[in-house]
Write a structure and sequence with these properties.
Length: 128
C-alpha cells in the first residue's frame, strides 16, 4: 500500500494526479484514465466542501494487490457522495441548476465505491 497526505486545497490537485500517475504507472491507460477522472472529482469535492473556511488534509492510499483500490480519508464535515443524486450529462442545460454530474462521472469511472463515516472521518474507497 502506498499512502500520501495532501492539503485539501484545489492547488494540490495537480500533485494528487501526479501521485496517482506514478502509483499506477504500470497499469493500462484505460485504468489510469478512469482513475484520473474519479480521483479528480473526489479530491476537488473534498478540497472545495469538506472543511468550509478551515484548512484540512486528505490522506490518499492506493492498494494494487488484487485490484486497484484508492481510499480517501478526511476529517471534514460528514458527506456520503454515493448517496447524492446522480444526473446524466443530458439532464443539464446552460440555464439548469441541476447538480450531480460529478457523481455520475465517479460512478462511471469506478468499478465500485464504498463510503463510511467513523471516528470523525469520511472514508471513501473506490475500485478502479
Amino acid at each position: 500500500m502506498i499512502a500520501k497526505t495532501f492539503a485539501a486545497d484545489t492547488k494540490s490537485a495537480a500533485a494528487v494526479i501526479d501521485f496517482i500517475g506514478v502509483c499506477l504507472a504500470h497499469h493500462p491507460a484505460s485504468v489510469k484514465n478512469r482513475a484520473f477522472i474519479a480521483v479528480d472529482e473526489i479530491f476537488s469535492n473534498i478540497a472545495r466542501h469538506a472543511y468550509g473556511a478551515d484548512c484540512g488534509d486528505v490522506l490518499i492510499e492506493i492498494d494494487i494487490r488484487d485490484k486497484t483500490l484508492i481510499t480517501f480519508t478526511d476529517s471534514g464535515a460528514p458527506f456520503d457522495p454515493l448517496a447524492y443524486p446522480c444526473h446524466k450529462p443530458d439532464d443539464f442545460s446552460a440555464d439548469s441548476n441541476v447538480k450531480g454530474l460529478g457523481i455520475f462521472l465517479l460512478k462511471n469511472a469506478a468499478c465500485d465505491a464504498v463510503y463510511n463515516y467513523a471516528d470523525g472521518k469520511n472514508v471513501l474507497s473506490i475500485g478502479i
